[in-house]
UniProtKB/TrEMBL annotation:
It comes from the Bacteria. It comes from Streptomyces rubiginosohelvolus. Residues 79-155 form the YdbS-like PH domain. The keyword Transcription does not apply. The keyword rRNA-binding does not apply. This is PH domain-containing protein. The chain crosses the membrane at residues 30-48, 54-78. Keywords: Membrane, Transmembrane, Transmembrane helix.
Length: 168
């Protein structure tokens, strides 16, 4: 039932988690970002003998830090990302130390997009982006199974079509 004027909408913590494959997707992204500086440093270290130590040392440090981060952070992110869609709003909760709730009322939604980058396609995942007129930007739900994302985009489109616009 839509909320009447002046009524407060109370949102519970979002129930939905991301797909477990998001952990692998985040790890792959992190390892690719780590490889970008490590590979050139390692290649140059192998080729330039006088500078070998000064090139291979940072390559090893970056590789170790990047690998540790790729192992630990995605698990942490998976545990802290939640999302929910009700008849009134789309909302996303992210973060552990700095928690951020992003709420998009259905009456404010302008567009709903589904995006699948190359890595997302490899992991059979997708991102649903809900755009509003907010200065903070769009609400993004990343790491969804691609079929769940398609169903969600369809559902959001249907709900927003049936929701009267906000005149304020």
């Amino acid at each position: 039932m839509p909320q009447g004027e002046g009524e407060t909408v109370r949102l519970r913590p979002p129930r939905n988690t991301l797909n477990e494959r998001a952990v692998g997707w985040w790890r792959a992204q992190w390892l690719l970002m780590t490889a970008a500086p490590v590979v050139p440093l390692a290649v140059l270290g192998a080729l330039i003998e006088p500078a070998r130590f000064w090139l291979l040392l940072p390559a090893a440090v970056l590789a170790a830090a990047g690998t540790a981060t790729a192992v630990l952070f995605p698990l942490w992110w998976f545990r802290t990302h939640r999302w929910e869609v009700t008849e009134d709003a789309v909302y996303v909760l992210t973060g552990f130390f700095w928690q951020e709730w992003r709420i998009a009322p259905m009456s404010r939604i302008q567009t709903v997009d589904t995006v699948r980058g190359p890595l997302e396609q490899l992991f059979r995942l997708a991102t649903v982006t809900v755009t509003t007129a907010s200065a903070k930007g769009a609400v993004r739900i990343e790491g969804l199974d691609h079929e769940v994302a398609a169903d969600l985009a369809e559902r959001l489109t249907r709900i927003t079509r049936d929701t009267p616009g906000d005149a304020t």
